[in-house]
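Structure in, sequence out. Go:
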């Protein structure tokens, strides 16, 4: 959430940032309500001061044995007016807070301005040694490989739950579990994260704290009877670990890594992205979340990106990193890198991770602060998160890049101690 004072003092900058994100501009309405609220508050303060002054006069009159009925009647009118204004202020505040919840975070100055994913900018690319995009054979796609090797069953998943709910079978299930455990171990043992295993259901305040609602509420699975949501990412419960808390500055940065299943009513797009893992409603992901001091958040973003890249380098999976343009940024992000892995069968890059800096946008919503030891003032932390990584599209790249001409799958070397086997065939 943006600071109302910042909006008031920088209205044109905020309007431009919203325009760059292709979002709806309600700033004039916000400023109008803000002015109404402040004007009403001033009137209320004046009336309360008047009431206090007259109350003292009533006391003196009564003490002197004089009649104060006329003044008391007049003050009742003032009290009624104060109550009316207080009620009006509460209504204005509700409208104002509702509008503020829909205002997106502003893009950082380093974010390229653009309208859509077509305007994203390549940051860098990494290819394994001796890798070539050219192949003499037509590689099988992950769906064909999964069916041939009996390690993925999308049909039975659809029968059980509907399309977009995959079933991992046999060595496919073992490979998925191995991948999750490997990623967790690397982040914990090599990158210094603390492991968290969060709940998969969260309350409404948690979803609001990270910016999923109200704007994205329709994309979430919702359990109406209990007023809880299935998480779209472990970012939500892990970030909310410190909701309404003041973190000791000496503990910053705090770095968490956690596995969760993720649930999204809409994920990916239809058409060419609808088969197999290209479009799923349930998938697995290891998430990295950071709470950092504001002055360090952009160096921490680069570090976060590097931590995600280390997974892919160890797996020897080709990938490239994109700096998202303003129009492709999420609602809450100030800056975001997307990591895409190569799919030989699709002959294109597939998004497998996003690494984002939210600055203090989420911290304001969730009220996560620290006390600056130099200024002694409370400040909002900056929050960051990154997929480290989502397994669904990463699994596509692993299966397709590690297939043999005979249609078997060589297990990546770093996963073999977790699977207990080195080939699927």
């Amino acid at each position: 959430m943006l600071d109302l004072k910042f909006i008031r003092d920088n209205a044109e900058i905020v309007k431009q940032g919203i325009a760059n994100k292709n979002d709806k501009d309600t700033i004039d309405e916000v400023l109008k309500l803000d002015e109404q609220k402040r004007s009403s508050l001033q009137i209320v303060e004046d009336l309360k001061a008047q009431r206090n002054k007259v109350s003292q006069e009533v006391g003196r009159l009564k003490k002197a044995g004089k009649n104060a009925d006329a003044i008391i009647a007049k003050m009742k009118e003032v009290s009624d007016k104060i109550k009316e204004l207080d009620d009006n202020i509460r209504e204005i505040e509700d409208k104002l807070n509702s509008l503020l919840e829909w205002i997106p975070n502003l893009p950082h100055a380093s974010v390229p301005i653009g309208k859509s994913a077509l305007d994203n900018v390549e940051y860098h690319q990494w290819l394994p040694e001796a890798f070539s995009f050219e192949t003499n054979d037509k590689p099988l796609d992950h769906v064909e490989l999964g069916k041939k090797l009996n390690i993925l069953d999308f049909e039975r998943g659809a029968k059980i739950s509907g399309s977009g709910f995959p079933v991992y079978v046999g060595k496919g299930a073992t490979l998925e579990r191995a991948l999750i455990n490997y990623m967790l171990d690397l982040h914990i043992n090599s990158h210094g994260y603390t492991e968290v295993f969060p709940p998969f259901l969260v309350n409404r305040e948690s979803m609001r704290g990270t910016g999923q609602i109200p704007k994205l509420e329709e994309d979430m699975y919702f359990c109406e009877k209990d007023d809880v949501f299935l998480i779209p990412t472990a970012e939500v419960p892990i970030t909310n670990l410190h909701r309404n808390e003041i973190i000791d500055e000496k503990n910053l940065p705090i770095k968490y890594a956690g596995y969760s299943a993720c649930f999204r009513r809409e994920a990916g797009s239809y058409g060419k992205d609808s088969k197999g893992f290209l479009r799923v409603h349930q998938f697995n992901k290891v998430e990295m979340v950071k709470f950092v001091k504001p002055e360090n958040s952009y160096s921490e973003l680069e570090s976060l990106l590097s931590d995600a890249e280390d997974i892919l380098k160890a797996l020897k999976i080709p990938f490239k990193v994109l700096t998202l343009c303003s129009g492709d940024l999420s609602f809450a992000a100030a800056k975001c890198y997307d990591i895409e892995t190569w799919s030989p069968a699709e002959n294109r890059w597939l998004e497998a991770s996003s690494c984002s800096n939210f600055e203090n946008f989420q911290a304001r919503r969730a009220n996560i602060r620290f006390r600056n030891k130099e200024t002694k003032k409370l400040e909002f932390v900056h929050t960051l998160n990154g997929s480290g990584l989502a397994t669904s599209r990463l699994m596509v790249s692993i299966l397709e890049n590690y297939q043999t001409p005979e249609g078997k799958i060589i297990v990546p070397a770093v996963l073999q101690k977790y699977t207990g086997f080195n080939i699927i065939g």
